Amino acid sequence: MKSYLPPLGPKADKDTVRRHNLSLVLRAVRDEGESAEATRAGVSARVGLTRAAVSSLVEQLLDSGFLTESGKTFSGQAGRPGTALKVARTGPAGLGVEINIDYVSVCVVDLAATGRVRQTEHLDNRGAPPGEVLGRAAGIAARALDSAREQGLHPVGAALALPGLVSGGAVRQAPNLGWNQVPAEELFARALTGLWPGASPLPVRSENEANLAALAELWFGGLDAVRSFLYLTGEIGVGGALVLDGELLRGAHGFAGEIGHVVVDPDGPECRCGSRGCLEQYAGQTALLRAAGVEESGGGAAGVMELERRARAGDARSVAAVAEAGRMLGRVLSGAVNLFDPDAVVLGGIYRCLMPWLSPPVDAELTGRVVSGLWSPDGGRLRASSVAGDAARGAAALVVQDVLADPVAYARPEPTDA
Amino acid sequence: MKSYLPPLGPKADKDTVRRHNLSLVLRAVRDEGESAEATRAGVSARVGLTRAAVSSLVEQLLDSGFLTESGKTFSGQAGRPGTALKVARTGPAGLGVEINIDYVSVCVVDLAATGRVRQTEHLDNRGAPPGEVLGRAAGIAARALDSAREQGLHPVGAALALPGLVSGGAVRQAPNLGWNQVPAEELFARALTGLWPGASPLPVRSENEANLAALAELWFGGLDAVRSFLYLTGEIGVGGALVLDGELLRGAHGFAGEIGHVVVDPDGPECRCGSRGCLEQYAGQTALLRAAGVEESGGGAAGVMELERRARAGDARSVAAVAEAGRMLGRVLSGAVNLFDPDAVVLGGIYRCLMPWLSPPVDAELTGRVVSGLWSPDGGRLRASSVAGDAARGAAALVVQDVLADPVAYARPEPTDA
Lengths: 418, 418
Description:
- The structure is a homodimer.
- In chain A, strand 3 (92-99) and strand 4 form a beta hairpin.
- Chain A is built from 12 helices and 15 strands.
- By secondary structure, chain A is α/β, with parallel strands linked by helices.
- In chain A, helix 2 packs across helix 3, helix 6 packs across helix 12 and helix 8 packs antiparallel against helix 10.
- Chain A folds into 3 domains: 14-84, Arc Repressor Mutant, subunit A (Orthogonal Bundle); 94-211 and 391-410, 2-Layer Sandwich (Nucleotidyltransferase, domain 5); 224-384, 2-Layer Sandwich (Nucleotidyltransferase, domain 5).
């Protein structure tokens, strides 16, 4: 018999407890600071540790540059006034780099996940050698990092958002970029180190772009209490991500969420993935514009704006094309909802602006096909994504989340010069 | 901006640390006992706590009846001989109760998750009032609990495995039983308390039957290193479960895994769920036997045996019916694999004995439709479930897992009489 027990965790010793509590206090200051001024007393009440323990932890966080404190505060706490604590605006920072088909967007966030630097360049990345694309991205990133340093930020890591199957630091396949087996992290890190030499090279990680957009939607969007959702982003491809109880579901190899390649019609048109009749062939940007009779000249974005304009004007062919895409989306989504049971389905990318015509057929399919009447059309569970859901910021925030989870691992032994 | 931080966990204080470490030591004895005799020295080495700390924790576990020790052992440890520690065979136990369409199966396991009592009765539960079915199940359970007590076991909880949508202690819907909004936990607990009065009523939980069969497959089956898989069980309905990294994926409302209601053909035959063309209508037992021309007289099991016999004899209609079901299964599974990216797909229930004719078309669909050639036909990722994957044992083991995770919560203040 195989052991059915979960693997043994690390032992809980004094050092582990202190590191855990440092993270608790740092996050409590961050959360407390949302609504009021954070004080040692307030943090103590929030996390349930003694005032003395909190004071000691706060000292360490101040010394390491994770927190700052300002003058006296009288914000409702009994007893003598405390000083107001804040997450440092000049402390550790995360770099996010989104490489997409026709643009590169770079974002630096501070410990509060506030965007501090943003650089976006429109580039046609299709067909360019991957090393060249990543080199250009590193150039944009280096400029953003310089700006961040000027603001007193100390970047501790970078995350790449890539439109394809990403695992083990490489892009296994990104059909719309024409990439195959590209060691993206390594190529980017090498280019960045050349352009932006630091004390030590910036650690680089990578992740699927839809996954990071979904995380940004979760963290910074308008989802309120929703913690489990399916995220779809309509682009040239149809990207997807699954968030369950506030965590990204990556799958066994990191390839989960490929909803664009769920089959709609087994004998349908050939897909770039090698299969036939995938959702992408019915609800992707190219298929949608073709069905609507909109020329995709001037780039996809212009085509989608034209489609929206025509639908708004009541053009029958445009409305019918969007409705048909909605039926196909709804059919695939009903299966996904039966499998995953999320709180909500969030539609992003080109679907955002098409919601008035897209959501009724999607909702109708979901209502008819989700088991046992668990989906009702006016339940508010089908939503458009917010503008906040952008992959570059999600990537940058991912880096910073690691810092908050274990600040000790990111404490600088001594201040570095700016 | 919404906080993007995970919720604050409990503070790590001395009491929490000790409870955590008691669980560590208990589980280490359990794991160590798999291959060799467990000693205090061996446990100390395994979990990384000092000998003195381990001795103190072991004393508490011995006093509370979670562990037993026997004579001297010389099992390869340096220094003076220790005594051999074992997880108690007379300690806390879990009760699992599977209520299915045509049988009730009850299982009691000890702390090592070894089955110690099993009672199965074939009953036609279709159409009987839910209270009556649960009352009968409680009667069978009471007899099993008596046997367990005679073996010195102390049942600490029960789990029900139910073939339907289960949440909040109730069966929301179990179409094949004809149940709607049945407060199963309450009805079972009340019936059991009447039949088996204890010092305090046994806590009862409930779970979807396919979910528990999948957990049993994970814990006791032949999956080796596989920690993420899709589990399908073919019965009158087609049940499903998703296990990710060793954890059951329950979804936002507990209804995840309803793969039987993923649509195959939007205009296909009506399904009991209210939709059309669900997988169940193509690959469920009834559809399969009908397509093969096998009369379902004498119960479904007899029909499936007859189908297997005919397929083995080369009957063309039977082989074609199974192959067609396999294509539909494979089509739906390819979408599920694209969404979920599991290590393996495990087929149970009636599919187990039909694998020779079922697996080639399933594998062919997966190979053709899973993105970017991530599925290869001979990768060993499509498997038949093992006999160990039974829902009653999974349910009982679930109860016991709680004990192992926090033994203090289940410690008896004083020994009770048997």
